[in-house]
Structure formats: C-alpha cells, structure tokens
User: Which sequence fits this backbone?
C-alpha cells in the first residue's frame, strides 16, 4: 500500500537547508524539515513535512506552521531487505530520517538487520532515530487532533491514517494493544512529536540547490 500527496519529479535541498519538492503539477512545495515516523512491526511509515513560510509571517507567528502528510507506505511482502530498500529510497528522495520506538525489545532485531543493510549501502538518509515520548500514546494522539482542529494538519480521506484517526474509540485507547492495532497513528505521532522535541530552524530560502533527487512515477496531487 502506498499513498503519495503528489507525483514528485525530483527533490532538492537548498543551500540554506530548506527542502523543495518539484512536483508534476508545478506546486513545488518547500519545507523547513521533513521527517518520517516508522512502526517496524507493521512495516508501515508515514512521511511529514513542516512547511516553510514567508519570513515576515514566521516572525509574527513562530511555531505555527502547518505540517503536510507527504506519503504513507505499508510493506506487504515478507522480504525484509525489500522494505529496507524502500526506507532508504524514500529517505533519500525526501531528505529525511525515520523516528521509531527504539526502546521496545521486539524492535531490536529489526534495528540490527537494518544497520547491517545500511553498512552495505552507503547512504546518509533513512537513519533510524529514537522517537520522543514513546510510552504516551494519548499525548501523541492529542497533538495530532489539535493540529487537525487548528487546520495545521490535513489528512486525506483516501489514506489508512485517516481511517484509523476517525475510527479510534475510547475503548481502543484503554486497550493494551492500541499501539499495535493503530500502527498508523503510532507512526504519525513519532513524526509529529519529533517536530516538537527537535524544532527545525527556519531560514530564508535560496533558489540554488545544494543537492537533488529524481524519481519517476504516475500519481496526482490529492488535496
């Protein structure tokens, strides 16, 4: 399963650090930072970008930028190396790393296998980083719902994350397996919380790229 907000022709990191996605429809959004949330057990990840805004607006309303859900992906075959390839590929395209729960013992083998994979594939992107506040599922869910209410996070109706966010109940939250059954929310909260813990620094955009990635594909922008 793969959903993507736009057909990306190429991506580039500008010299000031902003990330620009060159899209087939010409929107070409620019982000101050892009980060992924990963749930290894379900083999699902979601990639989010914090938008770059005009410097004058940012000076007035710091910390009130919107976050776009750029991609969600769930790996559906049993070959772990294939999943690792997707992590590296999307990490490279979006210039992002992946935040996950590194404290859970059942994730240790995944991390070791990925480290071995990365050692044979030299690529600076797609690192696995510790997510913040991993034990507090309700805290992350509350943050997500606040962003949606403030119109700072749009969730497309065709995504798996939309189905889980709109379908979760109080009984689900009280269940001990909520982090497993609602793996999309689990991954999204890792990405969203990382922006709170490690806030990106905004700088003025520069039209000269410091690097680029290109990709093929046929998908259209979905608002």
Assistant:
């Amino acid at each position: 399963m793969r959903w993507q907000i736009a057909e990306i022709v190429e991506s580039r990191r500008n010299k000031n650090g902003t990330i620009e996605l060159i899209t087939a429809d010409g929107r070409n959004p620019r982000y101050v930072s892009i980060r992924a949330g990963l749930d290894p057990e379900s083999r699902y990840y979601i990639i989010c970008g914090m938008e770059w805004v005009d410097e004058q607006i940012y000076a007035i309303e710091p910390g009130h930028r919107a976050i776009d859900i750029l991609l969600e992906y769930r790996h559906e075959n049993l070959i772990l190396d294939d999943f690792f390839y997707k992590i590296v590929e999307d990490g490279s395209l979006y210039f992002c790393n992946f935040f996950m729960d590194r404290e859970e013992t059942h994730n240790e083998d995944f991390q070791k296998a990925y480290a071995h994979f990365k050692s044979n594939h030299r690529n600076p992107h797609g690192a696995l980083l510790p997510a913040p506040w991993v034990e507090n599922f309700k805290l992350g869910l509350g943050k997500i719902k606040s962003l949606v209410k403030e119109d700072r996070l749009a969730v497309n109706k065709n995504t798996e994350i939309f189905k889980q966010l709109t379908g979760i109940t109080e009984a689900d939250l009280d269940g001990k397996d909520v982090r497993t059954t609602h793996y999309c929310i689990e991954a999204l909260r890792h990405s969203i919380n990382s922006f709170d813990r490690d806030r990106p620094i905004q700088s003025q955009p520069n039209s000269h790229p410091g690097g680029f990635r290109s990709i093929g594909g046929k998908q259209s922008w979905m608002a």
In short: The chain is about 35% helix and 25% strand.
